[in-house]
Here is the input.
Amino acid sequence: VGTGRVNDCPVHENPKREARVLRSLPVHANIVRYIDEFEDGETHALVMEYAGGGDLLDYLLEHRPTHSES
Here is the structure.
């Protein structure tokens, strides 16, 4: 995320706030672990645990019930 946008971003796009929340989470098998963060003038990056298997949204869309299953 570009650092010029950090102060006027919604909560879910504010990396400093998100890093603080992630650091406060307990270690749990179902929560992707926060590792570190760094800022490089223009960019703020959050380093997270690798979670293989793809995007959660893609999984949900692929596994949502069809009308025949409801």
Summary: The beta strands are 34-39, 44-48. Residues 3 and 41 are 7 Å apart (CA to CA). The longest strand covers residues 34-39.
